[in-house]
Design a protein that fits this description.
About 0% of the residues lie in helices and about 55% in strands. It is an all-beta fold.
Length: about 100
């Protein structure tokens, strides 16, 4: 979490490809602690929600992760600063580092 404001915070997720060939597509799933929290200002992805679960898929610029490179997804979580940290995060079903799962 970064960039805290009164009732929101900014988040950045880096999707890395350590392999030598481009990786086509990815799916980032972030579970927030409550349905009342929203996400805005998404960059690097398109977002949809199902309750407290937010799913991010590539936008036209991030659809393929080049070999030995990464893409970034940034967004704001709105509604509360206290107790609003993600409960879980996965990229293609694999737990994200730095977020409890």
């Amino acid at each position: 979490m970064t960039d805290n404001a009164l009732l929101s915070y900014g988040a950045t997720v880096t999707i890395s490809n350590p392999g030598p060939v481009p990786a086509p597509g990815w799916t980032l799933v972030v579970t927030l602690p409550r349905e009342s929290l929203g996400v805005s200002g998404v960059e690097g992805a398109q977002a949809s929600r199902d309750g407290a679960v937010w799913t991010f898929v590539p936008d036209p610029n991030t659809g393929q992760v080049p070999g030995s490179a990464s893409v970034r997804v940034t967004f704001r979580v709105n509604g509360s600063l206290t107790g609003a940290a993600p409960r879980a995060c996965t990229i293609d079903g694999v737990a994200c580092s730095g977020v409890p799962n």
